Amino acid sequence: MIITENLTKKFDQITAVEALSIQVNEGEVFGFLGPNGAGKTTTVRMLSSLIAPTSGRAVVNGFEIGKDDQNIRRCVGVLTESPGLYDNLSAEYNLRIFAALYDVEDIDGQVEKYLRMLGLWERRFDHVGTFSKGMRQKLAIARALLHEPKILFLDEPTAGLDPEAARLVRDFIAILSQEGRTIFMCTHNLDEADRLCERIAVFKTRLLVVDTPGNLRRQLYGRKVVFHLREAAQTLVDEVRAFPFVHHVELIDGKLVVTLDEPEVHNPEIIRKLVNQGVDIQFVGELRRSLEDVYLQLVRNA
Amino acid sequence: MNKVCIMVRKEWAEVFKNRMVLFTVAFLPLIMTVIPLGILFALRSEGGMADLTTEMPDAFSAYCPSGLSGGDCFQVFMVSQFMMMFMILPLAIPATIAAYSIVGEKTTRSLEPLLATPITTLELLAGKSLAAVLPAVVATYAAFGLFALGAWLLVPNRLFISAVLDARWLLAIFLVGPLMAFMAVLISVMVSSRVNDPRVAEQLSMVVILPVLGFFFAQFAGLVVINRQLVLVAAVLLIIVDAILLYFAERLFQRETILTRWK
C-alpha cells in the first residue's frame, strides 16, 4: 500500500529524512515513532504529496509521489499535527468545504455520518472556536475521512488530549482499522502505538528499526518469565541455568526471573524441574518490557 | 472552476465575520462616495460661482467641453480631483481581505489540511484572489454608480455630468480598478508569506495606495492632469506589473514553499 525506497528530504544543508525504505501493507496500522525533529511530519508530508522528496521514491496506493500527486491526495486522508480548523465557521460548514474539495458526491450524507460517528452531531451548527481540544481533534479526524480514504496519515492523533478524549480517538482508530483502512500513525504515545499498531518503525532522521512491538522487545531484551515461589533458594538458580535454552537466571525478591526465547515451549520443563525439587510454585507470568524501554534504548543508541 | 467557487464561498463566509474587513468593504466605499458628492453639492449650492478657470492647470482646460461656462468648468476640475478617491477602493479592500484571509489561515494552521486536498495551487490562489478582488470591484463599481446617480440628481446640466463622468474616469474605474485590485492581492500574498499578524500584513500591503495618493496630490498641485492617455498607459503598466507579480506570487504559493518557508 505504501512503499518507500531511499526516500530522502533535505532542506538546504539539513537532512530531515535520510534514505527511508519501508513497506506498509494494506489494512495495517503502522506506527511511526521518533523524537521531536526526527522527520516524522516531513515523511507524512512527502507521502501525502504535500512536499517533494529530494531523492528516492515512494508509491502510495499504486501512485508514485511527484508523478501522481493529485491521485494520491484523492485517496489519502491526512490528520495534520494541528487540527487547522476554521474557528469562525460551524462544524458542519467546516466539513462541507472539505467534502466539496474532495468531490464527495453525497456531501450531506457523509457530513452527517461522521459528525454522528464522532459524537458531534448535536453541536454541528456551533462555531468551531467554541469547541474543546478533544472535539476539535475529532472534527479534524472526521474531515480526514469524508472522502473515505483507503489510507490515513495521522500525525499525533491524541497529542494534548485528556485521557477520556484520547481514549475516544484511539477507539475510533481501532474501528477504522477494523474497516480495513491502512493507517500510518506518527505518535509520541508509546502505549498507544503498542496497543494499536501491528508494526512500528523507530525513526530518527533515518530508519532505526521496523518490527512488531513484541519482536522488538524480544530482540532487545529477550523474553523474561517470572516464577513466583513460596520459598526460593539460590541453588535453584544453578539448576535452572543448567538448561541449554536458558540465557539468564536471577533471583529477585524470592522470584526466579528466567530469560529464554520460547517460554511456550520450555516453561513446562522448568516447572517440572522446580516441582521435582519440592518447590511450591505460586504462579508464573511473563515480564513485559514497556515499548518505552525499547524506544528509548533504540533512540539513545542511534 | 468548481473548487475556485468553493474557495471563494469559504473565504467570504469566514472573512466577512471580521469587523475590520466589514468596515473596509462597507464603509470605505460610502466615505469615498460621499466626499466627491459633498464637494459637488457644496460647489453647486454656491450658485453662480465666479469664473476661476485661471486657477486651473492649462492642461485641464482642454478637457472642458466648449458649452460649459468657466464656473462649471472649474467645478468639473474640483470634482475630478476627488474622483481619485475611487481608485483607492480597489487597493484598500483586496489588501485587507487578502491579509486577513491568508495570514488568518496561516496563524490557525488551516492551510496544511487545505493543501492536502486535491485542489491545485492555482485554484487555491485563484480562489483567494477572486475572493478579495470581487468585493473590491463590486464595491468600487457600486460606489461609482452611486456617485453617478447622485451627480445626475444633483446637477441638471447634462453637459456638466458628461464632463465629470467622461471616458477617462470610466476607463479608470472599469479597467484600471480591477487591475489595481489584482495587484493589491498579489502584493498581499507576498507580504502575507512573511508576517504572522493580519494587521501587519494589511498595513504593509496598504503601501500600494501611496502611488495613488501621490497622483491625487500631484493632480491637486497641478503637476499632473489625469487624462485618457495617462489612464491607458497606467492600464498597460498595470498589466505588465500584474503579470510579473503573478509570476512571483505563484512561485511563493506552492505547497512546499507555504509549508516550509512561510514564517
Furnish the topology, listing elements before pairings:
The complex is a heterodimer of chains A (302) and B (263).
Chain A: E1 2-11, E2 14-24, E3 29-33, H1 40-47, E4 55-60, E5 63-64, H2 69-75, E6 76-79, H3 91-101, H4 107-117, H5 133-145, E7 151-155, H6 163-178, E8 182-187, H7 190-196, E9 199-204, E10 206-211, H8 213-221, E11 223-229, H9 234-241, E12 246-252, E13 255-260, H10 263-276, E14 281-287, H11 291-301
Parallel strand pairs in A: 3-8, 3-9, 6-7, 7-8
Antiparallel strand pairs in A: 1-2, 1-4, 4-5, 9-10, 11-13, 11-14, 12-13
Chain B: H1 2-15, H2 19-45, H3 58-61, H4 70-83, H5 85-107, H6 111-115, H7 121-154, H8 158-164, H9 167-192, H10 198-205, H11 209-220, H12 228-252, H13 255-260
Helix pairs in contact in B: 1-7, 2-4, 2-5, 2-7, 5-7, 5-9, 5-10, 5-11, 7-9, 9-10, 9-12
Summarize the structure.
The complex is a heterodimer of chains A (302) and B (263). Helices cover 38% and strands 29% of the residues of chain A.
Low-confidence stretches of chain A: none
The total strand number of chain B stands at 0
Helical percentage of chain A? 25-40%
**In one word, what is the shape of chain A?**
elongated
Number of helices of chain A: 11
> Mind describing the biggest β-sheet of chain A?
6 strands, mixed
Mean pLDDT metric of chain B? 83
- What does the largest sheet of chain B look like? none
- Output the structural class of chain B: mainly alpha
For the CA atoms, what is the radius of gyration of chain B? 21 Å
How many helix segments of chain B? 13
- Please write the string of helix (H) and strand (E) elements of chain A: EEEHEEHEHHHEHEHEEHEHEEHEH
First-to-last CA distance of chain A: 28 Å
Side by side, the strands of the main sheet of chain A go 6-7-8-3-9-10
Report the order of strands and helices of chain B: HHHHHHHHHHHHH
User: Total number of β-strand segments of chain A?
Assistant: 14
- What is the alpha-carbon Rg of chain A in Å? 24 Å
Q: Could you tell me the strand content of chain A as a percent range?
A: 25-35%
Indicate the overall shape of chain B. elongated
Taken as a percent bin, the fraction of beta residues of chain B is under 5%
